[in-house]
Specification:
alpha/beta; twelve-stranded mixed beta sheet; 18 strands; about 20% strand; Dihydrodipicolinate Reductase, domain 2; about 475 residues; six-stranded parallel beta sheet; Rossmann fold
Length: about 475
């Protein structure tokens, strides 16, 4: 590929090659510029597993981009090279450590589909190197690092898109506008639902043996390097708070984002509480599979419900709950009706008698929107700019913090605690019925009830709660410290 003067200057200004032990990338002066229309954008995809395959498909051999690198700590992912080569006509290079690609001036964009604990640090390293970023949801593993990623995007004045692809759906944009224009009156509350079957991940008696193909130290990165007692390394990291954020921060972040989008809230909620637990089986996971989080926004509350157990004859395939037409979706209740968003690409408005008022359908190209914004150099062209990703991700994190500070309580005590709020009480009663249908007895202390947490949205810190504030960030390992920066 032809090197532009911009690339030569950037290469000359860059620091020496980065080693795996370095804690920071010294490219703060680098800035990516817009390429000419006849030049394709070069992309490095970091994390080539499940979701990473979608990234490779989106960026390889397109009219606007090529994949120059596949980066993964697992050498077995080199098998993805052949498919990319077939699609774009040349083979991408494979690397285990993404820092080895940052000095390549041909790379304009870093696309990240790693486990959650790596999302912010990889994105920040990319920004420091002058690269634009597409980062999967959630954009962060904790609240603090998500804000730092947003700050770095502002400091470097680069494009950062969050992988909440619903934001590129024209149908959902129209539904949001319909509600915000008051066509159904004021919003009374929003309920996000993540009812998705999640079986036990099992538990080992001895630590998992990590395959030789994987650099486990690099896989852990910013997270604590510990022995694992689950049978699978990949994917099941979601259910370990050391590396993942449970299903609220996995599948549920999409519905959390849609919920906040309808509300139009641009800050974190001022009060948060969680009720839930990992119930129905004993395994190596520690994130809730059953949970309700209450975000007490002043204009209208946002409740988020997570359920991982089936409830219809213990049928894992077809037995999940469905609340008012939403299984993995959102219900927006307004004065004169409600909107159900059952997918990333459709929505239906009803009056309060259940009659259809309006329907919307149709999805968009989220990866294409990112590339268009890189071309324009204008972050306002993004459908899911990093600030939006940070706020929605952080709503998942603050709910998890309340859960982690919770204590087991019996059903009768929880009922008494939520009885003063009809919405809260109804949500808990439905959760209790769901657990009962799955044979889970919560008459004794078994469900974790978190404290009400008071937050200062401006500083994104909790008021008078050191324990909660400590969970806004993490202890980073040497060599993998997320660097802070002022906006």
């Amino acid at each position: 590929m032809q090197l532009t003067r911009r690339y030569l200057l950037k290469c000359a200004a860059a620091s020496a090659a980065i080693t795996a032990s370095q804690t920071e990338v010294f490219h703060s002066e680098a800035r990516a510029q817009v390429k000419s229309p006849n030049e394709k954008l070069g992309v490095a995809v970091v994390g080539a597993g499940g979701r990473g395959s979608s990234h490779l498909s989106a960026f390889a051999g397109g009219s606007d981009s090529d994949v120059l690198y596949i980066v993964d700590v697992d050498k077995n992912q080199q098998g993805k090279i052949a498919g990319v080569e077939k699609k774009q006509g040349f083979a991408p290079k494979f690397e285990q450590d993404m820092r080895r690609v940052l000095d390549d001036p041909r790379v304009d964009c870093i696309s990240t589909a790693t486990p959650n604990h790596w999302h912010s640090l990889i994105s920040i390293w990319a920004l420091q190197a002058g690269k634009h970023v597409y980062v999967e949801k959630p954009v962060s593993h904790n609240v603090w690092e998500g804000r730092q990623l947003t700050n770095w995007a502002r400091k470097q004045n680069l494009i950062v898109q969050c992988g909440t692809q619903s934001r590129s759906s024209p149908s959902l944009k129209e539904a949001v506008q319909f509600v915000r224009e008051g066509k159904l009156g004021k919003i009374q509350h929003v309920i996000g639902t993540c009812y998705k079957p999640r079986k036990s991940i099992g538990k080992l008696d001895k630590p998992l043996v990590i395959p030789d193909s994987i650099d486990y130290d690099l896989w852990c990165g910013p997270a604590a390097k510990v022995d694992l007692y689950r049978p699978k390394l990949h994917y099941d990291w979601h259910w370990d708070f050391n590396t993942g954020n449970g299903d609220m921060g996995n599948q549920g972040i999409h519905q959390m984002d849609i919920s906040r989008w309808f509300l139009g809230e641009q800050e974190l909620s001022p009060r948060i509480m969680s009720i839930g637990g990992r119930l129905g089986y004993d395994d190596a996971g520690n994130t809730p599979n059953t949970q309700i989080v209450y975000h007490a926004y002043e204009k209208a509350p946002l409740l988020f419900e997570t359920r991982g157990l089936p409830s219809k004859d213990l049928d894992w395939k077809n037995g999940m709950d469905n609340y008012r037409g939403s299984q993995i979706g959102v219900i927006v209740q307004c004065e004169q009706g409600y909107v159900v968003v059952p997918s990333y690409t459709s929505a239906t408005a009803f009056d309060n008698d259940g009659n259809v008022v309006k329907k919307w359908s149709g999805g968009g190209d989220h990866f294409g929107n990112f590339l268009d914004a890189v071309r324009s150099g204008n972050r306002d062209d993004l459908n899911a700019e990093v600030l939006e990703g940070h706020l929605s991700s952080a709503l998942c994190h603050t709910g998890a913090i309340s859960h982690m500070l919770g204590k087991p309580q019996a059903k009768s005590d929880i009922e008494a605690a939520v009885s003063s709020d009809p919405l809260w009480a109804d949500s808990f009663q439905r959760m209790a019925a769901h657990l009962d249908a799955n044979g889970v007895d919560i008459s004794g202390p078994s469900v974790s009830v978190g404290p009400w947490l008071e937050m200062d949205p401006a500083s994104e810190t909790f008021k008078n709660n050191d324990a909660a504030n400590a969970l806004l960030t993490r202890n980073y390992r040497e060599g993998y410290v997320v660097p802070g920066v002022e906006a």
